[in-house]
Please model this.
Amino acid sequence: MKSILEGRPALAHEINQVAEVAGYLWQKGWAERNGGNITINVTEFVDDEIRQLPALTEPKSIGATLPHLKGCYFYCKGTGKRMRDLARWPMANGSIIRICDDCASYVIIADQTVVPTSEVAAHLSVHNWLISQGGAKKATVHTHPIDLVAMTHNKRFLEKDAMTHLLWSMIPETKAFCPRGVGIVPYKMPSSVDLAEATLAELDDYDVVMWEKHGVFAVGDDVMDAFDQIDVLSKAAQIYLNARTMGFEPEGMTDEQMHEMTVAFGLPK
Ligand code: 13P
Ligand code: ZN
Model:
């Protein structure tokens, strides 16, 4: 069977990056079993031949109407598929979908009928919003980092901006690489439209969204960029955790040190 990636180096490069990040998620211990999902807006790599490809499936409802996705194509991790398998075989553990003209459903067009992630409503709602903002962000990543998820089991860290300030203060570059911080979505049923809507609302104000007792949702220019944001936050959480394990509450950077960083890097307050 011929893959859609054959003869399309730019598209293949994009999908290979997804595979690389899927490997990192597994190595980090963030991707037990089928945990986590990645979607990429690949519309810019779609040529006339791809546009003519027949649908491999009947249209399936997204659960939301997303007008900015008209004519868009996405690579989606398959539901139930493992990141560690996707790392080696991205087109056997994910597929490319076309958004139907009603902007409320999609069909799979390549390579195989791998059903997209159960979190497709959250991912596509966020892509719809990203396009509406006119930015360059094409990637969305959801994963289950042990340290960050553990923190969401404590009410203290769920208070507005508590986690953001704690993580920023653990190591200087955290604020530079995640300048708008972490939004919190109170626990919601995985894969629900409620979870998708709550995630969207937080992205107005924050770079990365924590799903209470579940995981992290990040957006990025590309999949590496989205991964980096989560990695930086997880590093800060690790420093906090290590200090606590050594038996003390870490001091954290002082307000003066945070202010100095904020000015030097031209970051938002
Ligand atoms: P999928 O296997 O459907 O992508 O689900 C994994 C997950 O993490 C759900 O939140
Ligand atoms: Zn999940």
Notes: The chain has eleven helices and nine strands. The beta strands are 37-41, 60-61, 73-77, 94-99, 105-110, 139-143, 182-185, 208-211, 215-220. Residues 35-36, 142, 144, 190, 214-215 surround zinc ion (ligand 2) (CB under 6 Å). The chain has a mean pLDDT of 97.
